[in-house]
Amino acid sequence: xxxxxxxxxxxxxxxxxxxxxxxxxxxxxxxxxxxxxxxxxxxxxxxxxxxxxxxxxxxxxxxxxxxxxxxxxxxxxxxxxxxxxxxxxxxxxxxxxxxxxxxxxxxxxxxxxxxxxxxxxxxxxxxxxxxxxxxxxxxxxxxxxxx
Length: 147
Fold this sequence. Notes:
Number of helices: 5
Strand order of the largest sheet: 2-1-3-4-5
Shape: globular
Number of strands: 5
Order of helices and strands: EHHEHEHEEH
C-alpha cells in the first residue's frame, strides 16, 4: 500500500509558526513520526509539501498516475478557499483523509468551511501529529475492508 502525505501552506514552518497552536515540533519531526509509523504498519509513504495551490493540484494528479492508494492531506489555509484542490481530489477519486493539527472548529469562524471535507472519507482535527498516524491507520483498515 502506498500513501501520499500531502501538506499545504506554512506546514513547512511548524515549530516556528504559532507554537501555542501548532506546538514546537518541526515539519522534519512530523515526517519522522509518520515514517516510523508507516514502517510499523508496513506501508510506503511519500511526502509532499507546498505553499502553492497549483503544486498541490499537480501532486494530487501525480498520485493518480503513481497509483497511490490513499492520501493523508492537511490542506492548511487552502482548506477554506480552494475549489481547485476539491476538483482535483474529485477527479482522481483516491480515498483522502483530511487532517488538521489544530481543532479548526474552535478557531476563527472562516476555518469552519472546508471544501476538502466534501470529498474526504474522514476528517481528523485537533490531534496534533497523531492525526496523521490515525489517518494512515484508517486508510489501511479501509483498504482491508474493500478487499
